Amino acid sequence: MISYIEAIPAFSDNYIWVLRKNDSVVVVDPGDPEAVESYLEKKNLKLEAILITHHHYDHTGGIMKLNEKWNPEVYGPKGGHIQGIKRELSEKSIIKILDTEFVIFETPGHTLDHIAYYSKDINSLFCGDTLFSGGCGRLFEGTPLQMFNSLNKFSCLPSETKVFCTHEYTLNNLKFALEVEPDNLVLKNYYKEVNTLRESNKISLPSSIDLENKINPFLRTSVDRIKENAENYTKQANLDPVEVLAAIREWKDNF
Ligand code: ZN
Ligand code: FE
């Protein structure tokens, strides 16, 4: 089974997650092939598989180069639109890599093809750009309702599930979350904690489902205070939870 997970930083704020069993690894969303290559070389590891969450280039840019060198199994969303994918996945697909089982969720919203990988074996969720700590992905292709349903799939997972997102957006997300829900104590404490981590350039991830359910406004659209603030922002009354999500997503886009 996978026994070790580590992040390779890439570009300005991406993380390429490396899942390791002995000297074999799987990488998630290898946007930058050089970053992966130098990591593998330094640690003398071999690449067995690639997991892709969606079609954006900062997540897929390394597939072809890594394919050439390692010929790994390459999993990703169905549709044939991402070059180099060898096994297309959809809702409830189950895959086994490095003796570890993953179930696939379709999570449209940020993009329409977005999928996430959840493993009960290792209590871990790889959610790409759908869920961030304290936030969620921008709605480039999907609707607020799609994003709402996608996030719901995550918030129902066991609370101890570790959340591996693909970007270091946490601190900015938490600044916004505090605007939306200023009296949330858990959020205030988490903000302080992440602020300290980021001051010394340390990673803020993984998060957990338990923590996200307590602090992430995009998972908390039924909370009265968040609903009221969304209504103030849109100057509309009686917003339902999906409309609250739409409102705070737009608010965040302009924050
Ligand atoms: Zn993206
Ligand atoms: Fe991204």
Chemical compounds bound to the protein: zinc ion, fe (iii) ion
Q: Outline the biggest β-sheet.
A: 6 strands, mixed
The order of strands across the largest sheet is 1-2-3-4-5-6
Query: What is the number of independent domains?
Result: 2
Strand content: 25-35%
Write the H/E string, N to C.
EEEHEHHEEEEEEEEHEHHEHHH
Number of beta-strand segments: 14
Low-pLDDT stretches: none
Spatial shape: globular
- Average pLDDT figure: 98
Structural class given helices, strands, pairing?
alpha/beta
- CATH topology value of the largest domain: Metallo-beta-lactamase, Chain A
Instruction: Specify the CATH class of the largest domain.
Output: Alpha Beta
Radius of gyration: 18 Å
3D structure, described in words:
The chain contains nine helices and 14 strands. The model has no long low-confidence stretch (mean pLDDT 98). The N and C termini lie far apart (42 Å). The strands form three sheets. A six-stranded mixed beta sheet has the order 1-2-3-4-5-6, covered by helices on one side. Strands 7-8-9-10-13-14 form a six-stranded mixed beta sheet. It has helices at 33-43, 57-60, 63-70, 144-155, 170-180, 185-199, 209-215, 224-234, 241-253; strands at 4-10, 14-21, 24-28, 46-51, 73-77, 87-89, 94-97, 100-106, 115-119, 124-128, 131-132, 135-136, 162-165, 207-208. Helix 5 (170-180) runs antiparallel to helix 6 (185-199) and helix 8 (224-234) crosses helix 9. It is 36% helix and 25% strand. It has 255 residues and is an alpha/beta fold. It folds into two domains: 1-87, Metallo-beta-lactamase, Chain A (4-Layer Sandwich), CATH 3.60.15.10; 111-255, Ribonuclease Z/Hydroxyacylglutathione hydrolase-like (Metallo-beta-lactamase, Chain A, 4-Layer Sandwich), CATH 3.60.15. Zinc ion binds at residues 54, 56, 110, 129.
